[in-house]
Amino acid sequence: MTSAVTSAAGFANADAAPVSPVPDSAGHFGRFGGRFVPEALFAALDQLTEAYAAARADPGFTAELGGLLATYAGRPTALTDAARLTAHVGGARILLKREDLAHTGSHKINNVLGQCLLTRRMGKTRVIAETGAGQHGVATATACALLGLDCVVYMGEEDTSRQALNVARMRLLGAEVVPVAAGSRTLKDAINEAMRDWVATVDTTHYCIGSVMGPHPFPMLVRDFQRVIGVEARAQVLERVGRLPDAVVACVGGGSNAMGIFHPFIDDTSVRLIGAEAGGDGLATGRHAAAIAGGAPGVLHGMRTFLLQDADGQTQVSHSISAGLDYPGIGPEHAWLHETGRATYGVVDDQAAMDALRLVARLEGILVAIESAHAFAAAFDVARDLGPDAVVVVNCSGRGDKDVDTAAKWFDLL
Amino acid sequence: MRSLSDERSLAGEPSERNEPGGQSRLSQVFARARADGRAVLVGYLPAGFPSVAGGIAAVRALAEAGADVVEVGLPYSDPTMDGPVIQAASDAALRRGVTTADVLRTVEAVAVTGVPALVMTYWNPIERYGVDAFARDLAAAGGAGAITPDLPPEEAGPWLAATADAGLDSVFLVAPSSTDARLARVAAVSKGFIYAASLMGVTGTRERVGAQAADLTRRVRAVTDTPVAVGLGVSTPEQAAEVAGFADGVIVGSALVKALLEAERAGADPGEAEVALRGIVAGLAAGVRRPEPSVPRG
């Protein structure tokens, strides 16, 4: 298979493939999702919904996006046999979907290219984004540079210091980075500030949400743009192994890399879909970011989903060594997949994730992002459970260059 | 904590509830003001700032100094529709431990003065409390209703049923970007009044009231007889008079909150803060009584 064909078809297949019956026209995934936003944003959300529907039906749009994914983002990304890791874990054959090899170093580029093309299509000239680890911010700054759009990225003050390298990258790419000092100074507060910006600038500005979250149509739209991961992985596993995998494992913060790789497998009921939430210091300590394992249904950032919240419905501050997973909610489609039992969600704490990060580096020569390391830690358990006849795909959602400083401190390397 | 029944001692019996089928207390206030040829003044303050007791004193001062309706804000961890002033007061209230039960106590303190009290809240605290339980306890506290800015009509079914059962008004918002179809949809569910956001943006004082406000008010009036109150950016008596010239109500929030924040920063005692607040409210109350005739009413 050739790159261009696979990637272009990967997106175009979103229309042809048997798609799950969600969301409904109002953005509901079962009882989750919806649109809980001020009236002022409804017109923009309707405009985006219409523009997206028109774009999906336009062969010119799908061809342009497919072309950028193939010739700019580097798709399809490789499927790597992790032979030494497989031998070490002593269970299922472990295959890695290498989103770390995509341009800008993570899967985030898939979504931003789609949304920035939509921005241009809507006649808007400015893009705003939130970022936690900085990966989505870097990807957005990149796509804006490529397409000639103004770019402002909101980032919690705590994250600007723990991900300083990505702040510099965004500025090099011409984006304005705005540190957010409100609230817990992390991802959720960056989203709050981006929403405040958007309501005042919506005529000229698109809010490029970085995960499968927020008000409808964002969870659907981001999922569809990330679906290319699963479409490629499914075809690659079939070609390599001659059958479907037994399990697909991904980390989940908001959940875009997980939704992207899960979605094309949803109708393949023999394939287990497993998400790894960030357990921080451990679920029992209360200092974690596991919205499903440790939260309850509620409404935040325009959607109904599982949230970390107190008895009065105030959002609780999440904790994770991984800035990209440090979010108190989760995309509404994951909440629905959890509730219907189609996907299962486990918890990986900081220690287990960092141990997995080092193990993958030493055995496979791949320095993965701390976010992705959560998926690896979960996958080791799954691989042992399923045994040597099984095949497990891990979504290696991003590379770990941005995390070298954190890892060096964690392992006392300097 | 879910019921106020054991906490009723604080402020005595609240004033009577809206009678199902009759005119709500909010509707009566707007009808009286219209008969007097003036606009209604709606004042907002968050509960729990500078403290629960201080917040109660402040909302009472609002009611006594001339606010026709008082909005009691429920401080929330993620106030995406608020500018820096209300964020600062809400954050401080949360840090100092304000709870939803405290908000209901603050409502009760306004209600006993006879001035209708509304809760202004983001949706999640109501959902977490329990939709029916919140409506019941708000009614028990003497509240007249609630404004829920991030609850769209599409998602409001259970809330509309709960408020109707409890005899409460459910107030919804419109914005300059609202299409005529959406104005009609919001007007169909908004009881008491319709909250018209004067501009595209978050709460906070502005140099001038958006030109979009008068236009939006006219567009709302084309689809409903429900009164229209204009908020966002209104802070001075002159702006109040200007808005009173075309709308049924004038909503002021950040300007009042700012007075409390500044008093605290200056180390003023609570009495001084209250005097400042009363002065601002009196000026605004005068403003809504001299509507600028430049734009024809109704």
Q: Judging from the principal axes of the Cα atoms, what is the shape of chain A?
A: globular
Main sheet attributes: strand count, strand direction, barrel closure of chain A: 7 strands, mixed
End-to-end separation of chain A: 44 Å
Q: What number is the mean pLDDT of chain A? A: 94
Counting DSSP H or I runs of 4 or more residues, the number of helices of chain A is 16
What is the oligomeric state here?
A: heterodimer
Q: Determine the structural class of chain A based on helices, strands and strand pairing.
A: alpha/beta
Q: Tell me the total number of β-strands of chain A.
A: 15
Question: N-to-C SSE series of chain B?
Answer: HEHEHHEHHEHEEHEHEHEHH
**Biggest β-sheet description of chain B:** 9 strands, parallel
Query: Considering DSSP H and I runs of 4 or more, what fraction of the residues of chain B is helical?
Result: 40-55%
**In what range is the share of β-strand residues of chain B?**
5-15%
- What is the residue-averaged pLDDT of chain B? 91
Name the chain pair whose interface involves the most residues: A-B, 37 and 40 residues
Helical fraction of chain A equals 40-55%
**Global outline of chain B:** globular
- Uncertain regions spanning at least 5 consecutive residues of chain A: 1-18
Q: Which structural class do you get from the secondary structure elements of chain B?
A: alpha/beta
Rounded to an integer in angstroms, the radius of gyration calculated over CA atoms of chain A is 19 Å
Protein name (chain A): Tryptophan synthase beta chain
Modified residues (N6-(pyridoxal phosphate)lysine) (chain A): 108
Catalytic activity (chain A): (1S,2R)-1-C-(indol-3-yl)glycerol 3-phosphate + L-serine = D-glyceraldehyde 3-phosphate + L-tryptophan + H2O
Domain Tryptophan synthase beta chain-like PALP (chain A): 72-397
